[in-house]
Design a protein that fits this description.
homodimer
């Protein structure tokens, strides 16, 4: 799957992911109103609103970006109808030729991780049939439980040609509380990164592994150091834009071949119309604002490569 | 919410949780058959089967246990219909007077953890209305992202009188890979435990905090040491039974007041009818086998207190 990701990045000349993380506040009034007219001010109405919002953005940007990253929490907040909207979003984006990275940050003991791997990347057996549950192309995974919580994901990645991104160094302010703790001279995030190399070695797909990692744009020094440790693992980089990471910060996350990293922005793209810079588009044309924000982001990232 | 949990534990004299983690393999043939007749061999059929299976077990054990712990991964593997079955299970168990601990192990950057907290413990605003998404009483939470990934859960716990259990030392074989790493003489799990004390201090509900932690039954020495560090935090103890933890191992997880810990068993209860010990019940009477397994487990745990 990473090979396909690289093909799409290269074709579109855009090492960029749009994070589809809809808050109801981001959804323009006319979309909310229409959804509420049909379904009432209910969870179903909210789910319809975020789905229509996503659809508009996806249609507007699908020729520009290789991949989208829906954050499942933003859907789970609306209960079952929200999860339904997540599934519809995943399916629709795939129909549009986009690679879908489910930002689900799952991870548990072995048998439970196996169920997550089945549900998000693989197929489940029901009697004599088998079905995909959510069928993302990649998902993000939490490493706190160690190798036997990760191995079931690796198995499914190999069976299905799919991929994972393991949290190494997250973009949030307090990520250092545990991740930066140092033992025998090595911070925890580096130990996890070295495990990612190990886990990824059995999942090569061309020059890169289907096992990548997450390193926040907000910690460029660590990104630089980790890049060298993980030469064959893609880095998914959140934290660009709204969280404070700049293109200049991101240069060192890439390998010399211009590959090896993909930068994600959520709010900066999907709520672009709310920024002064894109306010001329107006709320009605929110998707055009998102398109312009994507064009600007791609240009910004490519300017440092 | 921990006060209510303690009341129920005391009333039922059972510091025991039943883990509702259904695999389709556990569901007796007659239930699967009926579900498949109605819905076909589909995800809907599988979801109906696990829901009916859960319902049977819940009816059989709800007077014995204070709480149940559905593992959401087992539902997510069946996609949206599975998540629907999770929601139905949560609601039904609450109707039956059970406290529901959603074993979801969520955790992310602040804004995303806020969405998870909303979806699983709190209410989401839709226009002028607000709704509970999944409405568990407690959920399990992953600490890898540090305090700002935990704080949103604390806020919702305080608003809604709900609770969380933070992963400290998990029951799986490779949990030590990261959790046991020692810096400045302190293993990571202990550092997390000390943070749990800090996080929990603002969420007291009687003598205990609504912020508890997860410590596997499979590491009794660590459980003993951690008990002293966390005097006011409930310990959710997985790993009893099928994973290898024994009642004798668990003694030290409790405080001198006989409180402070609650022991979870999943397979050992819900798939009891498959064990030789309970085979006399037969597949048709799987729920009676589960009831007997719960009675035996409560007796076993209470024998060491």
């Amino acid at each position: 799957m990473v090979k396909k990701l690289i093909e799409e990045i290269t074709k579109k000349n855009a090492p960029v992911i749009a994070g589809l993380d809809p808050m109801l506040d981001y959804v323009p009034a006319h979309i909310q109103q229409k959804a509420f007219e049909e379904y009432g001010e209910t969870l179903e109405g909210a789910a319809e609103a975020i789905w229509q919002f996503n659809k508009g953005i996806t249609d507007a940007i699908c020729d520009l970006v290789p991949a989208v990253k829906p954050q499942v929490a933003m859907y789970e907040q609306f209960g079952v109808p929200g999860v339904q909207a997540f599934h519809k979003t995943v399916s629709y984006c795939k129909e549009k030729g986009l690679i879908v990275i489910g930002d689900v940050k799952r991870g548990d003991i072995g048998s439970t991780s196996a169920a997550y791997a089945t549900g998000h990347l693989g197929k489940v057996h029901v009697g004599s049939k088998s079905y995909y549950g959510f069928d993302e192309d990649f998902i993000t995974v939490n490493p706190y439980l160690g190798s036997d919580g990760i191995n079931p994901f690796l198995d499914v990645c190999n069976e299905e040609n799919k991929g994972i991104f393991v949290l190494v160094k997250t973009s949030n302010p307090s990520s250092g509380e545990f991740q930066d703790k140092t033992f025998d001279g090595m911070p925890l995030y580096e130990l996890v990164a070295r495990k990612v190399v190990e886990w990824g070695a059995g999942c090569m797909d061309g020059d890169y592994s289907n096992v990548g990692c997450v390193i926040g744009a907000t910690y460029p020094e660590m990104g630089k150091a980790l890049r060298k440790i993980l030469p064959h693992n893609y880095i998914l980089v959140p934290g660009y834009g709204a969280q404070g990471g700049t293109a200049e910060d991101l240069k060192e996350y890439f390998n010399d071949d211009g590959l090896g990293a993909i930068v994600s922005s959520s709010r900066g793209i999907i709520a672009a119309y709310k920024q002064e810079k894109y306010s001329k588009f107006g709320e009605e044309n929110y998707a055009d604002a998102s398109r312009q924000a994507v064009i600007d982001m791609i240009e910004d990232i490519n300017s440092v490569l």
